Amino acid sequence: MRMRVLLVAVLTGISALLVNGQNTAEKLLESQDRLSIGGYAQIDYNQPLSSDVHQNGNMDVHRLVMMFAYRFNERTQFVTELEYEHVKEVFVEQAFLNYRVNDWMSFRGGLLLIPMGITNEYHEPATYNGVERPNLDSKIVPTTWREIGGGFTGNIRNLDLKYQVYVVNGFKSYDDGGVLRGTDAFRKGRQKGAESIFTHPNLAAKFDYYGVPGLKFGFSAYLGETQTSLYDGIEKGNTALEAMADSSVIGINMIGFDGRYSTNGWVFRGQVNYASLNNTDQYNAFTGKDLGSQLFGYYLEAGYDLLNSKNTDQKLVPFARYEKYNTHQEVEGITQNLAYDRTDVTAGIGWWMSPGAVLKADMQWFSNEASDDSKTQLNLGIGIWF
After folding, report:
1. What span, in angstroms and rounded, lies between the C-alpha atoms of 109 and 266?
2. Could you tell me if 138 and 191 are in contact, meaning their C-beta atoms sit under 8 angstroms apart?
């Protein structure tokens, strides 16, 4: 397993795709205005296709987001991201105070994006190919993944290295019942800064190297334990209740490698993630869940800008993406579910009318190791980013 992870990571770095510039938060932090505004929107049409049955499509204002930054002085800023999902759900995706200590270090504290992979930080629809985000970034890296915490970030320019190191709150694994499960691992455990349970601190870190023109290579790590409501109110020394609470905690060690590369109109990106979980046998027995003990996944993507040779800021990018991800790579005390070993293929095209306005169309084919059948879906989308 370790050799497989390292091999895929190396291949990912070599064939890395789509170097992103700045995300919205980074743009706002660089603004010299007292008050800065940004945002993005994603409007989707998803149509399952079948030769056997009629299926309704789904049309959705998937996301509508406004971002604001306020500069108190030359060193101190506040950034927040307010999101409406599916028109009716409201979330705060970021809300942090940033203090520039010096040219290579800033303190950052509040509701923070966990720096794992590519899409969790660069999730604006005009920064990636395809109507929908990669499913690896849903099932293993639960984008958009954010928690409350604090730490340091900066750019060491003479080393061509960007870094982020945070101590944060973690996933909730138990709250009046088990939360984590086999099909999408941690996704239901995201606390999102909303009256979050805090039991154990966790460490999140990422290092990005950008010393080769057109190439950006990243290494991410997340280490810690989940949070559980069962510790609340336990009398100290009550070993029986403490043992029960301990059985609801999952230890998490996750690493990720990602690469992005662009040259002469070609754009490439790739990502690999591996997570090792501790105590899943006790957790599943206690909660009745089916959480895997190891998770593994990767994707590779390539595209080419057909307007690269033209004197225009428009782009027309056909692309293809291959994803392989398994949330039951290994299990303890339960039967491995082959339906969680999934392969997705996406092929489509995007027309960027300007860097912040894009029309997208693609086809997706979904399959898993439990069945010979596959599912097909047509996606059309509009992406806005400013």
Report:
1. 37
2. no
Q: How far is CA 341 from CA 134, 136, 183, 252, 368, in A?
A: 15, 12, 10, 20, 6
* Contact residues for 160 (Cβ-Cβ < 8 A; gap 6+): 209, 210, 211
Please report the beta strands in the chain, taking only residues with DSSP state E, as ranges in sequence order.
Answer: 35-49, 58-71, 76-85, 89-102, 105-113, 146-156, 161-168, 172-174, 202-209, 215-225, 227-228, 251-263, 266-278, 294-304, 315-330, 341-354, 357-368, 374-385
DSSP string, 316-364: EEEEEEEEEEEEEEE-SSS---GGGEEEEEEEEEEEEEETTEEEEEEEE
The three-point CA angle 54-56-58 to 5° equals 155
| Angle, CA of 22, 23 and 28, to the nearest 5° | 90
Round the average pLDDT of the chain to a whole number and report it. Answer: 94
Query: For residue 3, is pLDDT > 90?
Result: no
Question: Whole-angstrom Cα distance, residue 141 to residue 115?
Answer: 10
* pLDDT at residue 206 greater than cutoff 80: yes
Two tokens, residue 37: 């505004």
C-alpha span between 6 and 243 (Å, rounded): 36
What confidence score (pLDDT) does residue 22 get?
86
Beta bridge partners of 49: 376
Q: Which long-range contacts (CB under 8 A, 24 or more apart) does 232-236 make?
A: 232/197
Contact present, 60 and 159 (Cβ < 8 Å): no
pLDDT tens string 102-159: 999 999 999 999 999 999 999 999 999 999 999 999 999 999 999 999 999 999 999 9
Which pLDDT does position 51 carry in this prediction? 85
Phi, psi (5° rounding) for residue 274?
-135, 135
Q: CB–CB of 133/142 below 8 Å?
A: no
- Phi then psi for residue 180, to 5 deg, are -80, 150
Dihedral sign for Cα atoms in the order 23, 183, 326, 294: positive
Please write the tens of the pLDDT for every residue from 4-63.
Answer: 444 344 333 333 333 457 899 999 999 999 999 999 999 999 999 998 899 999 999 999
Contact 187, 139 (CB under 8 A): yes
